[in-house]
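lol ok so funny story. i was supposed to be doing the assay writeup but got distracted and ended up predicting the structure for this chain instead. priorities right. anyway since i did it might as well share w the group, maybe its usefull for someone
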Amino acid sequence: MTEEKKVVGLLTEIKTLLSQNKRVMNVDDLVAYTGLSKSKIYKLTSLRLIPMGENAHVRQKFFDKEAIDAWLLGKPDLSDEFLEQKFNEQLLKRKRV
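and the output, tada:
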């Protein structure tokens, strides 16, 4: 590995560590912080199973680091089966209305 590649790798690692010190995170920050995939995060947001900002004037999703930490420590069910069940429940509720 060349010196240049080592430096780039170290800078990338530093950037990742610094982004985890943010209080407010976007989806990309949350992916890096939690290790969850973007698709799983979008599923969780659409089902409202993850704590997120409620500003109706902002289209992008934002997440409070402290709320995410508390949510993660609460051991949420993140299995695909659980998420699919919740999604199907929402579909049934929408059909009834």
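The longest helix spans residues 3-19. Helices lie at 3-19, 27-34, 38-46, 65-73, 80-96.
back to the writeup now i swear
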